[in-house]
Fold this sequence. Notes:
Layout: E1 14-15, H1 26-30, E2 44-47, E3 58-64, E4 75-81, E5 87-91, E6 100-107, E7 115-120, E8 133-140, H2 149-155, E9 157-159, E10 162-167, E11 173-177, E12 188-192, E13 199-207, E14 222-223, E15 226-233, E16 240-247, E17 255-260, E18 278-281, E19 285-286, E20 289-293, E21 296-297, E22 303-304, E23 314-321, E24 330-336, E25 341-345, E26 358-364, E27 390-394, H3 417-422, E28 427-432, E29 445-448, E30 451-456, H4 457-469, E31 477-483, H5 494-509, E32 515-516, H6 524-527, E33 531-536, E34 559-561, E35 576-577, H7 597-601, E36 602-606, E37 626-627, E38 635-640, E39 645-651, E40 655-656, E41 669-682, E42 685-697, H8 701-719, E43 727-732, E44 736-737, H9 743-746, E45 754-755, E46 758-759, H10 769-790, E47 797-801, H11 808-819, E48 826-827, H12 830-833
Parallel strand pairs: 15-26, 27-28, 27-47, 28-31, 31-33, 32-33, 33-34, 39-43, 40-44, 43-47
Antiparallel strand pairs: 1-26, 2-7, 3-4, 5-6, 5-8, 6-7, 8-13, 9-10, 10-17, 11-12, 13-14, 15-23, 16-20, 16-24, 17-18, 19-48, 21-22, 24-25, 29-30, 34-38, 35-37, 36-42, 38-39, 41-42, 45-46
Helix pairs in contact: 10-11
Amino acid sequence: MRFKHIFGVPLCGxxxxxxxxxxxxxxxxxxQGDGRxxxxxxxxxxxxxxxxxxTRVVYGDYTYEDGHEGDYDSRLSxxxxxxxxxxxxxxxxxxxxxxxxDYDITKSTNGQENLAYLAAIDGQDGLHWGSGTQDxxxxxxxxxxxxxxxxxxxxxxxxxxxxxxxxxxxxQQHISYNSSETDPAKRWTVTPNYDWLWMAAINKGFxxxxxxxxxxxxxDFVPLTTTLEITFVGPTTVPLVQFNVRSKSxxxxxxxxxxxxxxxxxxxxxxxxxxxxxxxxxxxxxxxxATVNMSYINEEGEREEAINLAEGEEIxxxxxxxxxxxxxxxxxxxxxxxxxxxxxxxxxxxxxxQPHQKTCVKIAAPQISAGGxxxxxxxxxxxxxxxxLSIPGTANTFSYLYEGNxxxxxxxxxxxxxxxxxxxxxxxxxxxxxNGSGDNxxxxxxxxxxxxxxxxxxxxxxxxxxxxxxxxxxEFAMIIPSYGSGIGHPSDGNGVxxxxxxxxxxYRTHTGYKYVTYDRNLTVGQARGGLIFVxxxxxxxxxxxSNWIGTMPEPVEGVFxxxxxxxxDNWARRGYTLQDGTVVNNWARSLNDQNSVEYYMRNILENxxxxxxxxxxxxxxxxxxxxxxxxxxxxxxxxxKGGGAGSAYIHDWRRVVPEEGVVDGLRxxxxxxxQTSETRYEDWWWYDYYFNHYxxxxxxxxxxxxDIWNTFIASIDANSQDTQAEQFYINSLDGYFVxxxxxxxxxxxxxxxxxxxxxxxTGGIAGNIQAYAxxxxxxxxxxxxxxxENNIYGPxxxxxxDMVYQSTGGSRLPSTIINNNYRFQLKTADDFNGGTDTNNSxxxxxxxxxxxxxxxxx
Length: 858
């Protein structure tokens, strides 16, 4: 059919998708010497246009109205071409032996590229003839030939003629760019994953041949999948990172479906009334949107983060949807790179998607403002659990205000709070001491390098609250109050109690906020417009509270996380042990603390008398405690408002040592601390003996990457189960590299101790933040992208970042983490509580879309 021009802008018609047609040349099909394989069993014929070495089916040429060849608006149908390594699965209930067999595609050798055969896989038996008439039901792709076997094994089956198929939320597509192409409309090429182009063939009542031949049987494959072919036309104003297709009325458009082929009659090309009806299978998750990530591999073979279209350039995607019902209210939301999004309402332009058919639209690239706000939570349905989300956050959020001469060693952020919010950051860490002039945290100064930043805790919360209010109640923010004493962590616990009590008093006196307490039942709808406080107050050294004056109070609002405070190197949580298997202290309590890593990593080398030269810095101590994987423990207990208990899995340690050569100028090994001397008397003479003190650091970068990745996987695994996760996950990428030029980066942290006038109590509070952020952010970005090509996404929960906007990965990661929320089936409270979906429209963040309905172009 054809759509009429709307607002003067033409729309490409809904195309009846021409599937692999039955062979129309009986002489060819039944002829001799045509390369037809003999096969151990029935051999089927199917026509196709061979299209090269790709091992999937591929889209072929369009057909056009007479006299309109090449006219986009005159396309009628499109071929789907077989590839030789494809497989289909065929079921025949009356086959006398095996009832169902996977068949290979075999290309004809008679010179006609449009002819192919289906023969049983080499060495395997095929279907066999019965008697009288016989029915055949076939499905593409066969489960065994699908690229993503994890998804196939979890969601796909074809038994007794019934297909249980699956169409994922996240539809990975291979995008490439050819700058040498002179036609700008042809520079971009996109190949979808044809696993989700489900096709079926039905041949009922075929007369069983009695002459010893195969009877010229043919299978006519037609698509089951509903397909939206969408073309974006440049230029773009900001790079595009993702687009989402969804139904305004919240219809399920992806997910699991079932189709009983036995209920169909035939699958003659173009006769869709004979195709059996398919049904959506409700598995209790959100299936309202399909998502396409728009990152690509550039001509140098490097991953790029987003798509930029020049004037006249076009890029075309095929999005697969459930073959269940007509869709008349489809919207397309396009997200800019660390910016806002815009939505076009195709339904208002009379675009109608029909089961088993392809609909083509061409859309002007949205003109997104570079300074826009990514209000991504707005697009999440209300009944989705907050534990299902992936939330980007910033460590020491307001440290961008620090302007000391050594700021590069201490500040974790350069972007201000508005830039962070606009980029989609929704978790903010506020580091402060107690309020020295009162009992309310409102007036406590935020800190960086234990120095005041000129903004109080209360002022910072107010700024975040105003940003939440600016979203019309559709967003929310998490705030991590973090105790960071200006004198270090007091060992008597009084500072901890003061901080907790001051924070509670802040809650009592600031009643104008909407407070939300996190637990595993919290939904996005309940959290909208609110502040979720998750406080890090106590540290490992506060675990023994018997000698405290008082006990830790319950939080008046939000959550208190136990033993997550000033972690320094966090040796114990990381599983470092002594030779007898005892887990070490988190840090050394003194120079003689033999239960610490620091005791063993210090290296004291004696020089000759009267000689103060420094020996080789790469001498390693004889033994240093090592990591025991079985002793790793990142699980913290939590206390919620009202006294409820819970737990949180928190990976968070900052000091990282790269391997030699990974980062220019940085290395593992020995680092000089100080030199001491003593006077000795020998044979009536006295001599000065000199001692050089070193700290030895083994590489730990791989350990950091392992912990980041393992936390990522643990969060996905826990939150993807059929039961709600017990732990909430916080994955901190915050940290720095040990640097030979920054003494505090390599000083071991030893409480209240010094060597040669060098205080060790400041060890570990500074480092090379920028080099670390550049490395770790780029690494994590690429790992996530590579992982997503062949795996099922899931919730990351909170990911704390350094240097948002200031490194390549730092710019990419916020969008990457945010986009993860649109790449998998989100679980809802209804899955566990039997509730109802109360989601509001997800389009409120999009304004009026773009083009006033004129987004569809010729």
